[in-house]
Write a structure and sequence with these properties.
single chain, mainly alpha, 9 helices, 73% helix, 0% strand, elongated
């Protein structure tokens, strides 16, 4: 098992549920959901299993908390941050498109996104969380397109899907586009606005 990018806490006595959740998300991103286990996480965090059971009923409870945290981090906070800016709708959309490759935590975010998507193939709770997040993201992108002048709801929805698919692909494809190719993609995506 590959070591996740989480460091043990200095004060294990003050370890809270968020530390367990963050550690679980790190292990998930690096090694998949099957690697998210109480004993290895306790060793990683340099605490006893009792600390885990102080905050969580069982592993399923931790996995549920991880999904809640991922929803908040990967979508809700990003949407809130982008909507707080005074930028025009198209500028907000360009900011969203750049997040998968330019964001501070883009590599970890892409790994976590892929791990969640793989987990969702075999777990109903993860699939439900993923469907909810996909819908929130698509709705937000369609809203930006409508605010930018796309009047037909079906057009906004279809184009939102294309933008979202582009963003996901950009996060997962390891060969980067040249600047010229990226400008071509951006121009095609922004066409008819």
């Amino acid at each position: 098992m590959k070591a996740p990018r989480t460091t043990p806490t200095k004060d294990s006595a003050r370890l809270d549920a968020a530390a367990w959740t963050d550690a679980g998300l790190s292990v998930l991103a690096e090694n998949g959901v099957d690697a998210v286990r109480v004993e290895p996480l306790a060793r990683l965090l340099a605490v006893t299993k009792g600390s885990f059971y102080w905050h969580f009923k069982d592993r399923a409870d931790l996995l549920a908390a991880m999904l809640v945290s991922w929803r908040r981090q990967a979508t809700l906070r990003i949407i809130e941050r982008i909507e707080r800016t005074q930028r025009a709708p198209l500028e907000k959309l360009r900011q969203l498109i750049d997040l998968p490759v330019l964001g501070k935590n883009s590599a970890r975010g892409a790994s976590l996104e892929l791990a969640i998507r793989l987990w969702a193939k075999s777990d109903a709770s993860a699939a439900e969380a993923l469907a909810e997040i996909d819908q929130q993201r698509l709705t937000h992108i369609a809203g930006l397109l409508k605010a930018a002048g796309v009047e037909d709801p079906a057009e906004a929805e279809g184009r939102a899907f294309l933008y979202y698919a582009y963003m996901l692909a950009e996060a997962f494809i390891t060969t980067p586009l040249s600047e010229e190719a990226k400008r071509v993609c951006d121009a095609r995506l922004a066409a008819r606005l």
